[in-house]
Sequence to fold (155 residues):
Amino acid sequence: MTDRPYDSKPDTMAHIYRVASLLQDVIDDLHARLTVHDDSKLMEPERPVFDRVTPKLKALTYGSDEYKASLAEMGEALTHHYAANRHHPEHFDAGISGMNLVDLIEMLCDWKAATERHADGSIGKSLEINKDRFGIPYDLMTILRNTVRDWGWHE
Fold:
């Protein structure tokens, strides 16, 4: 046994480096996603449908009956889009509960960007609509709202 007192610095530094390495894994996942986000919209069968419907969607209020009708009009292209892109709750049999944290981050960024395409878009309103649409639990809604607030995304 040694008389020297325990020095926590080496263990703390090892912990700091390990957390940094794990955070880098998250950053790498996010980076990979940002390079391919919605690429499926650029090819068959999605592009022709998005070319036709997107201008209509921009003029509509998110969540309105007219908006929902336009989504229904997209049919197989939208089904293909959801299947090809895991940042959509529709990608998973379990919906939003099937997603991981990086899926949720990409989803929230996607929702924010989508609100910016509408004249009356609002991330706050979008969250409220999607809470019911996807059955988002209270705690997760609170986290999403906190993230919107902390990232300065409020209107």
